[in-house]
Design goal:
Blueprint: H1 3-20, H2 40-59, H3 70-74, H4 98-118, H5 125-151, E1 183-186, E2 189-193, E3 217-221, E4 224-227, H6 233-241, H7 253-262, E5 270-272, E6 281-286, E7 289-292, H8 304-313, H9 321-331, E8 343-349, E9 375-379, E10 395-397, E11 406-407
Parallel strand pairs: 8-11
Antiparallel strand pairs: 1-4, 2-3, 5-6, 6-7, 8-9, 9-10
Helix pairs in contact: 1-4, 1-5, 2-4, 2-5
């Protein structure tokens, strides 16, 4: 691992996190719209805590850490490290002020730079890489959390007025001239998915991947087909107009109960038309504020339950994660919108691969402890930082979650 290249990438990522908060007002920095989200200030502090706790304090004897009480404020879920502020109450952390958090970030940056320049071949370089990738995850989460928080504000503020939605060859036209998806045939058979186990201290190591992508293993797949594009807003509107949210036979029992309790009628950020306008769902709340709902764009901010119900209504199903990975590997550009549009729900529960072993120590809590009651999403979204996506990436969320940038692709 080249420590010079790693240092350059690290500093770029650290700067990017601070650039993301530049459009915000001071009042936005502690904004937490729901228990599953976190305020922007917390994201910036937590990613700094991660480097200080797992890299600097263990490996720099002369490094003086922040106020020890900050460990309680900015630990996320690492039980081995100690107690923490309850996640639903992170918005209460008006102190330390943002100025102190930024000063702390810069202090940690300098210490990381000194460490990397002094010790270019140390085994803890893997921890620096993990911290870098971890911060990229939080950059995406911060934008999704801000979208949720701003959507709850009656003034419907924009994160950035010049925010641009992704453009792709499919992002044009209208519902009337949008072509039906092409079904890509996949032979199946005995296939291999996942990543080879990363050996420690390997200077010729393969590109980074998380431990939950290991080990590479064999899976049997029956012949199947995947739609070449994601389900669109126009497609999904037809599901709504056909009573999709009123037909319990399309839904899993738990999903129907949640739909009823929360009164779901459409995707998370769809908005009703204003007086006298047609159709009923004419707007969508985005990081640019309220925008016209465009039929050709992929439908997003769906729960797994909604995605599964739509697939059943359409006479199809969700792909397994192995089917998705093999199609992405074999179909290449034919599998449109596989990356940089939306994370895509799969039918696969988030479980360990055969032979999975979490990392030793507290960082072993990073992925393995969540392998229950969640479903896998594949691909990447328009909010995913550049260079952070790959075909083997296993994102995961609870099936009722829908504030994430998640859509769906059909399989059969």
């Amino acid at each position: 691992m080249d420590s010079g290249t790693l240092l350059s990438r690290l500093m770029d990522v650290r700067r990017t996190s601070e650039v993301l908060i530049e459009p915000l007002e001071a009042e936005d920095l502690c904004l937490q719209g729901m228990a599953d989200a976190s305020p922007p200030k917390w994201h910036l502090a937590h990613t700094t805590w991660f480097f200080e706790t797992f890299v600097l304090i263990p490996h720099c004897p002369d490094y003086e850490g922040a106020d020890p009480r900050w460990n309680y404020l900015f630990n996320s879920y690492y039980e081995a490290v100690g107690p923490r502020q309850p996640r639903p109450q992170r918005g209460l952390l008006s102190r330390p002020p943002m100025q102190e958090v930024i000063a702390w970030r810069h202090k940690v940056n300098q210490a990381l730079e000194d460490l990397l320049q002094r010790n270019g071949e140390s085994p803890w370089l893997e921890l620096v890489e993990l911290g870098l990738q971890h911060e990229q995850q939080h950059q995406e989460l911060m934008l999704m959390d801000l979208l949720d928080a701003f959507s709850r504000q009656p003034l419907e503020p924009a994160y950035r007025m010049d925010w641009q939605e992704p453009e792709s060859p499919l992002n044009h036209g209208s519902a009337k001239d949008q072509s039906a998806p092409v079904w890509l045939q996949c032979a199946g058979g005995l296939v291999e998915i996942g990543q080879d186990i990363q050996e420690n201290n390997n200077t010729n190591a393969q590109p980074f991947h998380f431990d939950n992508e290991e080990p590479r293993h064999r899976v049997w797949l029956e012949p199947y087909a995947l739609a070449d594009r994601l389900v669109s807003n126009g497609d999904y509107r037809a599901f709504i107009e056909d009573g999709g949210y009123e037909r319990p036979e399309l839904w899993m029992s738990e999903g129907w109960a949640i739909r009823t309790e929360r009164q779901w009628k459409a995707p998370r950020y769809w908005r009703q038309a204003r007086c006298g306008e047609q159709p009923a769902w004419a707007w969508e709340f985005t990081l640019a504020g309220r925008c016209p709902l465009e039929a050709h764009r992929p439908v997003r901010h769906l729960s797994w339950f909604e995605a599964d119900a739509y697939a059943r209504w359409a006479g199809a199903r969700l792909p397994t994660e192995a089917e998705w990975e093999m199609a992405a590997q074999e179909q290449g550009l034919q599998l449109k919108q596989s990356h940089a549009e939306l994370w895509q729900w799969t039918a696969s529960p988030y479980r360990p691969y055969p032979g999975f072993q979490p990392a030793q120590g507290a960082v072993g809590e990073y992925n393995g402890k969540f392998m229950t009651s969640q479903f896998v999403l594949r691909g990447s979204s328009h909010l995913t930082p550049e260079g952070h996506a790959r075909n083997t990436y296993r994102n995961f969320f609870a099936p009722s979650s829908r504030w994430m940038a998640a859509g769906l692709r059909l399989a059969r």
